Sequence to fold (169 residues):
Amino acid sequence: MDPTRSSDARATLDTKAIVREILAEYALPPRGHHGVVHWARVLENGLRIAERTGANSRVVTLFALFHDSRRENEGVDPGHGARGGELALATRSRWYDATDTEVELLVEACRLHTDGRLDGDITLQTCWDADRLDLGRVGIIPDPNYMSTGFGRTVAHAGSIQPFLSTES
Fold:
């Protein structure tokens, strides 16, 4: 499925416009540990995982953009995922179009992405693995035991996510 189209073939998804809008109010350096380079890697990781899991690529794309969009610091930031989900919900009609089911998954994926969850819908699992596989950016080797999908565990177990999932800025 083309990640730029919703599952019911409605309006296109303009990721560049969404990123511009998010960055207009982003509290951190755009190229920091949780900024646009991280979002791009989460997007790449997520779409590649979705090819294997059958996850909703539109939700995965939106998750990559919104999950850290409302961080207030680069360290421990309780509630940042929920704030990112709230932004996604509040901007639904203005920045993108999605079904009710897609938005519910997106908000839940954002809200729970730092909770260490491994269960749930395959789209949630794909989003979380996409983020966790980019932990190398902060010096943490992804642990297969904290991956939700079989494919995520395989990639993490390999001990290196190069060249499949890039960790370079």
